[in-house]
Amino acid sequence: MSSDLQIGLSGILAAQRAMLVTAHNISNSNTKGYTRQSTIMATRLPVMTTAGTIGQGVEIAKIIRHKDDYLNSRLRDISSSLGKASIESQYLRELETVFNETSEASLNNAMASFFRGINDLSQNTQNISSRATLLEKANTLTDTFHRTVNELNQMKLFVKQSIESKISDVNNLTANIANINKQISALNVKGIESNDLLDKREALLLDLSKLINITIITQDNGIVNVATSGGTLVSGTRSTTITSEVDASGAITIINSASKNTQYIFKTGEIKGLQGFYNETIVSYKKKLDALAFGFIKDVNRIHSEGVGLSGGFASILSTNAVSSSTAALNAAGLDITPSSGDIYITVINTTTGAVTKNKISVDVTTDSLTDLQASIDGLANISASIVDNKLLIKADSGYQYNFSYALDPDPGSLGTSTLSVSGIYSGQSNDTYTFTALGTGTIGSTAGLQIEVKDSSGAIIATLDVGSDYTPGNIINVGNGVSLALSGGAITAGDTLTVDVINDSDTTDLLAALGINTFFSGADASDIKVHSGISSDVSLIAASTAEEGNNTNALRLAALQDDTSAIDNTTFSDYLHQIASSLGEESSNAYKSEESFSALETSLGNRRDEISGVSTDEELVNLIRFQQAYQASAKYISIVDGLVERLLSSFG
Fold first, then answer.
1. pTM of the entire structure?
2. Are residues 279 and 319 in the same domain?
3. DSSP-derived secondary structure for 471-498
4. CA distance 594 to 587
């Protein structure tokens, strides 16, 4: 009879334990990462008799997890890719707000406002109010550059902190995985299933895969090793900690905390996305912003240095930028703007008589140093030059001024006994030399048919001027390319010549802008651009004119920079900003599409996993009823056996 009771008891115990597993499933139906479990029942070993084998009931052979290792592996891979795409999408959208051109405080609007200020000044270059307004707009522009850089720097700081936080998460996860490995190993030695621990470890592995790309290697004893690009993070019951550091180039790298010489280069995951944003994306857009600021500084200063303020010239100027060595070649002297070989025109003005002397200094930047340039300037009449702390100081003698204007020399000399006066603004494409040659002999304004021929440096005829009996001495004659001429009465002889330099760029070397002489801005990038301290103190120094008081030519040249299609990367400053915003928008859109794609794929794989591993409460309730009925049947069987035993015993009195 004991065998009968054991059979019934085995049925009760098996059904009871199956109900416990079912209840465990139901209670964890909403637990993230839980894998559905089920009982595998098997017959107990039978008893051998002469009549054959007699069954001994049922037992729980195993409690299994319904899982698909391939799906779990794919989910980890997709989770890692999604982690990277999500980070990129999130931070690129945030970066878009930094370069938001629709904002009133945008860099594009600040730049447009600056050019409007220049246009307003060109209407009346002597108006102090217009000059002060331009200064305010220039300060707003530089502040906007600074604010944009600060926002990029703040983003970098936040990203760095995020990387450090997620590295801490990685270290915690790997330590927990190693600890669970230890627990699983201990249970396996005892032959005990560790389903819930396996679920917990699988959830940790999925969380880890979201942060970094990982490879899982499962051992026979149930332990898993976790590796990534660069090395192993979990080996059995031991874990490796990682940390971040900023290398010499300013990039964030991930290294082994202990050895310091093992570098981990992740392929996907949130940390990879953050690293890419810190090391590449922000750096790239910061370089573009610096390129814009540098190009703007260079072009504005290049034009501004060739103009004059309300005083018409300077008594003394000390350059803003120092060379690394006063004896080094100028193209290798550490200047932010690399100068070119060419000519610099320096105009010296006698403030008493108004007499003007234009001087040309030729510079070879591959061989000439600041010392050589100083000596050349110092050799000119009525001005002197010296070097102070590797900066160039130019002073005018008492009663004189100087400037670097591209205005034409008003009194270039005489042709025969006739004095020439030149006026206008040369509009040619490059600096040139015009040669005036008398084609006949006679008296200006008297001899019929008397002519003067004008040729450029290539020998091409620019004009043939009639200065004979039909010409009134002193009248202005148009030569061409913006140049005009007036002659006094006097005699000329065939073959008499006079050469006149016609210039539209009084500094073809860009040395004035490079050294910071008579410039509007100082600095070399978006972080240090600012209005020159001299102009901040005295707006009369804004060089809106050439050599004539009230002349607006230089202001117009500055205003024309707004539409200069060769300003930076063969486009205008505004279009360059548009390109930055457009490129960023496209990059952000692509990242968002990648995020959506990986998210959809993760959802699909998750649904497939749930079909296999997820808990259906309806199905579990059916199982619960089935096991309950089995339990009740086994209990009924034991009750019947018990009744039979009792009746049998009572029959023996």
1. 0.85
2. no
3. PPTT-EEEEETTEEEEE-S-EE-TT-EE
4. 11
- Summarised one tens digit per residue, pLDDT across range 557-614 is 999 999 999 889 899 999 999 999 999 999 999 999 999 999 999 999 988 988 888 8
DSSP-derived letter for residue 215 is E
Q: Are 507 and 404 in contact (CB under 8 A)?
A: yes
Asked whether residue 588 falls in the same domain as residue 628, the answer is no
Has residue 444 been placed in a domain? yes
Q: Which amino acid is residue 420, in one-letter code? A: L
Q: 194 and 133, same structural domain?
A: yes
439-462, pLDDT tens digit by residue?
999 999 999 999 999 999 999 999
586: in domain:
yes
- What pLDDT, on a 0 to 100 scale, did the predictor assign at position 549? 66
The reply to whether 465 and 399 lie within a common domain is: no
Tell me, yes or no, whether 417 and 477 share the same domain.
yes
Instruction: Tell me the residue range of the domain where 56 lies.
Output: 2-66+620-651
CB atoms within 10 A of CB 361: 19
Spell out the residues 6+ positions from residue 483 whose beta carbon is closer than 8 angstroms to its own: 408, 422, 423, 424, 426, 434, 502
Nearest residue to 508 (alpha-carbon basis) of 375, 377, 341, 357? 341
C-alpha span between 78 and 273 (Å, rounded): 14
Looking at the chain, how many residues does it have? 653
Given a cut of 70, whether residue 2 has pLDDT beyond it is: no
The count of other CB atoms within 10 Å of the CB of residue 182 is 14
Is 526 within a domain? no
3-state secondary structure (DSSP) of residue 216? strand
Query: What's the pLDDT at 343?
Result: 94
Examine the domain organization and report whether 321 and 429 are in the same domain. no
Residue 41 region, left (φ>0) first, then alpha (ψ -120 to 50), else beta? beta
Residue 323, SS3? coil
The answer to whether 205 and 214 are in contact (CB under 8 A) is yes
Task: Name the helix (H) or strand (E) containing 401.
Answer: strand 400-403
State how many domains the chain has: 4
Rounded Cα distance, 555 and 390, in Å: 31
Residue 326 CB-half CA count within 13 A: 13
Q: Is 236 left (phi over 0), alpha (psi -120 to 50) or beta?
A: left
pLDDT, one tens digit per residue, over 30-80 is 888 888 988 988 888 888 877 777 888 888 888 888 888 888 899 999 999
Q: What share of the chain is helix, strand, coil (3-state, %, to 5)?
A: 45, 20, 30
- What lies within 8 Å, CB to CB, of 581 at 6+ separation is 96, 99, 100, 101
Residue 169 near residue 210 (C-beta atoms within 8 A)? no
In this structure, is residue 523 part of a structural domain?
no
Residue 233 backbone phi and psi in degrees, to 5: -100, -35
Of 466, 562, 601, 465, whose CA–CA distance to 137 is shortest? 562
